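Write out the 3D structure for:
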Amino acid sequence: ARSELKESILELWSNIEKNKRNSVWIISGAQCHNEQPSEVDLLIILDLDEDGLPIIWSPSRSEEKERIYIKNLVLTIELKGHSGDWVRSKGNAIEVLRRGKRWEHASRQSRRQKYSVINYVSKNTATRSAPFVESLLWLQNVPRHGRDLNLPEPNDTFCGPPNWQEMLNKVINSSNLKMSKVPRSKDGHYM
């Protein structure tokens, strides 16, 4: 998943590695000791040049598209490799069948990873504060358009192979991220 995600990021932002001020970390199995859960499937940390990098953002249920710029992001991703038959929606949540025996709340697992990172960073930094962290549930083996999970929009669930543009749209639309116009940017927002 890590290498596929890296390829998708490079596909969207092909020049990201050319600027030494851009830092991107994709960490598999990040450990947040003394937290529950202690392991985060994927932890993505973006710290980008002051100008940020563009994406085309389309608000949920809207045909409008707008160019915005990402400057930084901390994102936890809960990975699930279940096929579509082993995944169901229940209200606003996603559940997966664990070892063919019982349903497990994957959405809750995703949120818990987010709070593990927040708590771990808060307890282990000099400032005792944590960055704003977002979460995403990635159902790798559920086709993006082939199975309707009947989740209300916006939601934090992404299906299918990685597409960084679409993943960021999911994160932005399902979160409370604040975007503000910056005077020197003619057409964009910074996040």
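Residues 180-191 have pLDDT under 50 and may be disordered.
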